[in-house]
Amino acid sequence: xxxxxxxxxxxxxxxxxxxxxxxxxxxxxxxxxxxxxxxxxxxxxxxxxxxxxxxxxxxxxxxxxxxxxxxxxxxxxxxxxxxxxxxxxxxxxxxxxxxxxxxxxxxxxxxxxxxxxxxxxxxxxxxxxxxxxxxxxxxxxxxxxxxxxxxxxxxxxxxxxxxxxxx
Length: 167
Description:
By secondary structure, the protein is an alpha/beta fold. It is 32% helix and 16% strand. The protein has a single domain (9-160), classed as 3-Layer(aba) Sandwich (Rossmann fold). It has six helices and six strands, in the order E-H-E-H-H-E-H-E-H-E-H-E. Strand 4 (85-88), helix 5 (98-108) and strand 5 (113-116) form a beta-alpha-beta unit. Helix 1 (19-28) packs across helix 6 (138-149) and helix 4 (73-80) packs across helix 5. It is globular and about 45 Å long. It starts with 8 loop residues before the first strand and ends in a 7-residue tail after the last strand. The mean pLDDT is 82. It holds the Pfam family NmrA. Belongs to the NmrA-type oxidoreductase family. Isoflavone reductase subfamily.
């Protein structure tokens, strides 16, 4: 599938918990995958298995050479200009910083689809909100996200994927 007309996907937060599943699903679906990562992540022993798996899968690592992460506007714009789709799976501590990603997407001007962490003001719950049990596998969330990428119903859309852990 590689080399086809499938969208190029940039993952921000791709070495994190759910991001690594979405990166893998992207590659398995034939999409060229790019993961934005800090230079320090490449030498972090806790992330070495993820980085090695990405290399084995031919994931393109886009290295941020600054510790400022999402505050490096020019680096974000440069990375975003390489792709068609941006998926943010940043950690909860960076949710408020996603406005930096949106700003860079607007400047880049080429993104057709954005999947981002949950909104802070509105959540839609399917059904009556009182399920007996809910089972979500990370691989299923990742596959669903990637299937939406080239679905014409989602062009120029923002899709929110929620993962809720019940205590």
